[in-house]
Amino acid sequence: MTHDIDHIGVIGGGAWGTALAATARRAGRRVTLWAREADVAAAIARERRNPDFLPGVDLPEGITATTALEAVTADADAVLLVTPAQVLRGVCGRLAPTWRAGVPAVVCAKGFETEGGASMGQVVAETLPGAPLAVLSGPTFAAEVARGLPTAVTLACADRTLGEALARALGTATFRPYWSDDVVGVQVGGAIKNVLAIACGIVEGRGLGDNARAALVTRGLAELTRLAVALGARPETLMGLSGLGDLLLTATSLQSRNYSLGAALGQGRDLDAVLGERRSVAEGVHTAAALVEMGARLGVDLPIAGAVHAVLSGRAEVDRAIAGLLSRPFRAEPDAHPLG
Ligand SMILES: NC(=O)C1=CN([C@@H]2O[C@H](COP(=O)(O)OP(=O)(O)OC[C@H]3O[C@@H](n4cnc5c(N)ncnc54)[C@H](O)[C@@H]3O)[C@@H](O)[C@H]2O)C=CC1
Ligand SMILES: O=C(CO)COP(=O)(O)O
Q: Could you tell me the pTM of the whole model?
């Protein structure tokens, strides 16, 4: 089957939805973006800016912005789903009545549902049954993508023809999608790295040093791979852009909302106070709870995610959580994870 993808719909007017709309427009596509807030849609349409979620970035001409979901579903050839993970189910439920048969849904949110641990792909399968599924994930700070700085992503789709058509529709010289058929692995990497980034931020904020952060990134990659394989992913996917690539980016840069949140916690700040100062989402806060439940259910050891969740839920002070990680038994490397 051939896929003619000219009109891209974007659901979500936050930083990432806006950046992806800019990218698709630069790739020559027609673009319609749905934003929840009327002032965000108006600013994108009239001023080519999104000062609320992507300040200081000029957007390309020609992005249609709307607060009407039907303006996207009426005509889009593919729809990018770019809301926070915890609200995707509700938004897809509202999209379902007007979703046209055969239009692909491209998951761009990173996370698992806190209640029940569903992946975003599962949420789409349940709420938009029959919609061909793709997942776009990788090391992508929205502000850099929106400015057109060089970026590479993984675009996962079980149907190679569709995956490659989406890659052609969205790709430019500076936004380079790599096709993968490992839809599960690509989602798991993008979701877990946010929790690991919080852990690395805590290490930064606590002043524990670069050695400790490198140890956490590496052991975090083992943890991430263990869970991904238990969920059906191929281990090599986690060594690619959507696994190691995104972990490396997010767990080492204060541009990351998850890492900077961790850094604030490491400096002794209160979680609610930090979240109260922000309008933007830090997905790791929600995903940590889902991971703990999934690890217990699947019998997968996730010590770093467990420590982050203990801190976020107020069950452990930062120092106690760190001491818990440091007192784990010495063991062999590589361990029994699937790359070992
Ligand atoms: N910002 C980034 O650099 C990247 C973000 N992502 C992922 O994209 C997803 C969206 O993130 P951002 O755009 O950065 O978020 P953001 O924090 O910049 O914006 C959040 C957006 O979600 C909307 N929203 C909030 N509650 C809603 C609800 N109940 N119904 C509908 N919309 C609602 C807000 O209006 C806003 O448009 C997240 O899963 C994030 O992990 C992925 C790659 C890069
Ligand atoms: O997913 C991201 C980069 O790939 C964005 O990370 P943060 O949500 O931590 O800012």
A: 0.97
